Amino acid sequence: MGFGRALAMGVLALGATALVLGEAWAQRTPPYFASISVSKARMRTGPGRQYPATWLYQREDLPVKVVAVYNEWRKIEDPDGTQGWMQVNMLSDARTAMVKGTIVEMRAAPRFNSRVSWRAAPGVVGRISQCTNGWCYLDVHGRGGFVEQSHIWGVDQNETLH
User: Fold this and answer.
1) In this predicted model, what pLDDT tens digit does every residue of 57-88 receive, in sequence order?
2) Which residues are bridge partners to 108 per DSSP?
3) How buried is 123 (Cβ within 10 angstroms: 0-12 exposed, 13-18 middle, 19+ buried)?
4) Do β-strands 83-87 and 73-77 pair in parallel, antiparallel, or remain unpaired?
5) Could you tell me which residues come within 8 angstroms of residue 97 by beta carbon, excluding any fewer than 6 positions away?
6) Cβ contact 105:71 at 8 Å
7) In what order do the strands lie in the sheet with 116-120?
8) Rounded Cα gap, residues 40 and 9, in angstroms
9) For the whole prediction, is pTM greater than 0.85?
């Protein structure tokens, strides 16, 4: 086998490995949080395209909770509690959260006496990280700060994220 063909085979093998590893999150055991990865995604009444669509989500990064798995379909729950089925390729393992209840203060450090960097209204969605001791770092398009975990939907109480 020539060098070019060997190189191509190696690249294909590496790509296949990356694809398998990249989809490993989708094989997790429910329940777990994910997010919608596309600008338009349909929720269906059952795990297949033959089932009627009940919702059309037009909000990329919206957090969802995966509650069941059937082949390439995931039964999800949205922040309002609505449940239905969505294809796994419409979802991402990117952790996001939505502000719930009231306006939240996004602080410079995970403490109540820390400086307020930003404020976020209910319904605002951002990426989350560094969840510990009841606080999560919420990044909304480059504007971030620590928020109380109890004021966001998309992370379990007392869940730790790094």
Assistant:
1) 999 999 999 999 999 999 999 999 999 999 99
2) none
3) exposed
4) antiparallel
5) 63, 125, 126, 128, 136, 138, 152, 153, 154, 155
6) no
7) 116-120, 104-107, 143-148, 135-140, 125-132, 96-99, 152-153
8) 35
9) no
